[in-house]
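Notes taken during the Thursday session

The instructor put the following on the board and asked us to keep it in front of us for the whole hour. The protein is Inovirus Gp2 family protein. We were told not to look anything up and to reason only from what is written here. First, the residues (205 in total):
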Amino acid sequence: MNINTAGFGPLNEKHITRIQETLDKSLEEHPRILLLRVDLHLPDEGHADSAVITRFIVSLKEQIKSDLHRKKTSGKRTFPCYLRHIWVREFSQTGKKHYHVALLMNKDNYAYPGNYKPTDGVYPHNLAVMIMEAWVRALNLVRDDNYRRYYSLVHFPRHCSFHLIKYSADFKEQYQSTMERLSYFAKEYSKDYSDGQRNFGCSQY
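Then, after some discussion, the predicted structure tokens were revealed:
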């Protein structure tokens, strides 16, 4: 596959392979997938250990499981939903660490992230809020009485979600476009290996 990566600079070919494997496995299980890109930042007063992304994914999986169970028991139709992910750790020009994460899941359960802003101080219950909650939990900030103020550490970029439909007429174009977007995660620029921590990861199966 020829991937247009103009502007990304050199790419890690091993990471490209792992990204494509993760995408293909998700499509094998769910022929209609939502791919959602989020950026995860760290609070100024703390730092994250090497297991923070693992805790984030575990928390999000647990919340999705509970959400689907709640919907099913209330009579709503639900579908199998295996969450897969790709993540990369990067450093800003000031040396501050942050993470980019791609989440892949069954579109028939979650077609869009939903509104991530509160109305009259009350947050809706949707995928976006579950993601923000998972990140705050991963950072061990939920003990703060006003921990929801840390929800702003999660950023949803413009056009952060898109769909990939395996049996659609333009699937090849969708797949090509998706791989071009995800190849950003494999760029070598802005990576730092000096602390011995991993800068890239994805679902193992």
